[in-house]
Structure formats: C-alpha cells, structure tokens
Amino acid sequence: MQEKSGRDAAIARALAAFDDGRFLADLERRIAIPTESQNPERRPVLRAYLEDEMRPSFERLGFKVSVHPNPKPEFGPFLIAERIEDPARPTVFTYGHGDVIRGQDNEWREGLAPWRITREGDRLYGRGTADNKGQHSLNMAALEAVIGARGKLGFNVKALIETGEETGSPGLNEFCAAQRSALKADVLIASDGPRVTPTRPTLFLGTRGAFNFDLTLEYREGGHHSGNWGGLLANPGVVLAHAIASMIGPKGEILVKDLRPAPMANSVRAALADIEIEGGEDGPSIDAWWGEPGFTAPEKVYGWNTLEVLAFKTGNPDRPVNAIPPRASAHCQLRFVAGCDPATFVPVIRAHLDAHGFPAVQVTQSRAEVMNATRLDPEHPWVRFAAASIGKTTGKKPAILPNLGGSLPNDVFSDTLGLPTVWVPHSYGACSQHAPNEHALASLLREGLAMMTGLFWDLGERPWPA
User: Fold this and answer.
1) CATH number of 209-261+305-365, picked from 3.40.50.80, 3.20.20.80, 3.30.70.360, 3.40.1000.70
2) The 156-162 sheet, strands edge to edge
3) What is the dihedral of CA 303, 308, 310, 316, to 10 degrees?
C-alpha cells in the first residue's frame, strides 16, 4: 500500500481523532461549561473556561498562554496563546469566542439540553456546538494534527479567545489596540458563522456591520377606554407603525436614501454570481419578493444593507384590554456593508422622521458597541491561497463571500490590527444558532477538520502570499 504524503497523513491523523471520539470528548467538556455572557452571574464561569479549559488545551500543544482582564471590568476576560517556532517565520492570528448566548434551558426539545452534547444522526445538539466552541475547537484540533504529523507547524500562531462576543465584544477593540505589538501577525484565519449551503465549503472575507436602535413614542400616562376615547386620542402604536412604514417599504426595501449603501462594486457582484443560499433540511424558504428589487438573494444579504424590526410593542400583547395604549416602541436593526458610517445613522433617521411628520418619535442607539462592516477584496492573494488549499482537500470549489451577512468584531482585526482576514465557517444556516436546539452537523465538522488541517499544512510548506 502506498504510504500517505505528509499532508495526507496529517489529514488522516485529524480524521482519526474525530472518528475515535477524541475531538468530541474535548467538545463535550467545553459545552458543559455554561459560559452565558449575557448572564452577569456567569462572570466567574467565563474566566474558568479560559483558565481551566483553554489554558491547558493550548499548553498541551506547546503554546504559551496568558489570561488578561477586560479593559471594561464589568465584562469577561481575554486569553492570548502563542506558539512562536521561529520569529523569522510568518505568523497566523486566529480567534474564537468562548461565550455563548443564554442556554434557554426550558425551551429545548424533550431529550435535549444546552449543556450536554446529544447526538441524533448527523446532528450534535448543545449550546455552542455551532457558535463558537465547536468551531474554535475544530481549528485547535487541526493545529494539533499538523504538529503531530510534522513535528512542528512551520509557522507561528497567535490565538485570541474572548468571552464577550455575544454581548457585542465589549472591550475587545481597546484590548487589541493596547496589545497591538504582542498580537502582530501576517493574516487572520479563523472560523465562525455558517456556510452558504451545508455541502459547499465557504470563505468569507469580512462582515456586515450591525447597528441596533430603538424607536419610542409616548403620548400620555396610562391607557384610556377605547370606547370613550377612541377617535379622540392618537394611538401611538398606529403612529409608530406608519413611521416605520416610511422607512421600510411593503416589500422590505429601505426607503431612507442615506441608509442605503453606495452602488455595489463589480468585484462584489462577480464574487456573488455563483453563490446559492440554502439553509439545509430545516432552513426557511426564501421569500423571493422581499428585499431590494432587482437584486439576487446573495446580493441582498451579502452586498446590501437591510433594515429590520426585531420587536414591536404597544399595549399588553399577552393580555390586551379595551384601552388606547399610551406608548409604543420598536427595536430595530440596520445590517450594513463596508463604506457606511454608523455615526451618521441616528442623525439620518432623526432627520427622516422629522421630514415625514413624526417629530414625536424618539430614536436612540440601543448598544454602545457597534460591530463595523469590513470587506477584503475577493481577488486578494490570501483568498486565492486559502481557496486553492480547500479545493485541494475537498475537490470542491469554495464559495467566496466578500463579507458575511451577519456581524463579527472583524473590524478589530482588519482595522485595529491591520490584518487581511479570511474566515472559514464550519456551521450552516439552519443550526438554530441563538435559539433552542442549537446543533452542529458531524459530517460538516469532519470535513471542516480535514480542510483546516490541509490549510495549516500548506501554510507550513508553501510560499506565503506577498
């Protein structure tokens, strides 16, 4: 039998760790740690994840590890792990987040629980299997396989694990700015988010930004009988609905001119031309009539801005009464592409509401932290390098997205640290991320482990992009 090449041997080594349960055992330990960053009571758990789980796991791979407090002390800490084989060799920066959203323990389907892995067929259920413990665990396992097969990586690695991504990564930018010299590297290669389809390897090169804001309208104190006062008292729910309708058209298009991005670049259109969006077996069907007219589905979600109403409240929806409510509110979100300045959003919305006869509607930014939009050129040499490596491993042409539809703190890495950023996601669109019954697909993780092992092998062997 022909002996496997070094690259093939490394991939075989990684897949053996997946197939014999070693990878799953590591992931089960990490899922069992309830790192809910949205729950202040879990603050000690966030540190424990870094100190008791991540530190020894990185040290076992020959990394030097340090855990640092957050510059914003009310939020969770950061871990830096570095393996410097030769200061003259190039350095990969990688990232993951150890925090998860709330477990929603009582809302999971019978037989499932957030803090343990339950396998049903190809699905691995558990909070963090997809977002993000499964993904950074996979990349660590790939590094381990290369070290085991070659005896070294052939390059240097600096890894950052944060514990606040699900609350907007508070303190991350300030921390990275202060640690800019210590975190100096040549490229970010990391994993988060979903593939465009479960079966197609995907690269994304940045993210859309996320700007959350609240619209509120309060006319008076207390409700008043709808029979005695209906037709005499303005209904804030109705007025706020019309205010929103002046901003978002009946088919979902953005009507506020200055909340729309610049025309889409030809390079972005070209990169999205062969992309199809499909969420898997349980994914929702796309409403083709919704969104920016004349755009394809990938152009709508990866190349354009979208304005959404995430919640709307007036009166008591659970126990309605015959009274005109005194107040209405809506929680809204603008997902925006590179080139848009979030500092302008509130003034633009304020001016629009005033011009359309809604001066009483108040607009306020909901979160102090804003994840800004970023995008790397799809023709960048690092993109070609990664795509060629993944294609060699899988025999598939990867989908290349100029940016993810969702948001990550990629601006910290691309702008503050000045890195080209290449993300290789290991999840899929119907993973129930941020919902009960979150899960990863074992087949997708296994393929992802082979891809990342091949990519890390190639980084230690082939000339790096200039």
Assistant:
1) 3.30.70.360
2) 64-68, 78-83, 156-162, 91-97, 187-190, 421-423, 202-204, 399-401
3) -170
Multiple choice CATH, 6-207+374-459, 2.170.120.12, 3.40.630.10, 3.40.50.300, 3.90.550.10: 3.40.630.10
Task: In whole angstroms, give the CA distance from residue 292 to residue 296.
Answer: 9
Q: Is 97 helix (H, G, I), strand (E, B) or coil?
A: strand
Backbone phi, then psi, for 273, in 5-degree steps?
A: -65, -30
User: Would you say 99 and 165 are in contact if contact means Cβ atoms under 8 Å apart?
Assistant: yes
3-state secondary structure of 212: strand
Residue 108 has pLDDT above 90, yes or no: yes
CA angle centred on 263, ends 257 and 266, rounded to 5°: 170
Alpha-carbon 243 to chain mean position: 30
> CA geometry: angle at 15 spanning 22 and 390, to 5°?
135
The total number of residues written for the chain in this structure: 466
Q: What is the pLDDT of residue 1?
A: 43
CA distances to 215, 365, 436 from 346, in Å: 11, 7, 33
Instruction: Enumerate the domain spans of the chain.
Output: 6-207+374-459, 209-261+305-365
pLDDT tens per residue, range 357-405 = 999 999 999 977 788 999 999 999 999 999 999 999 999 999 999 999 9
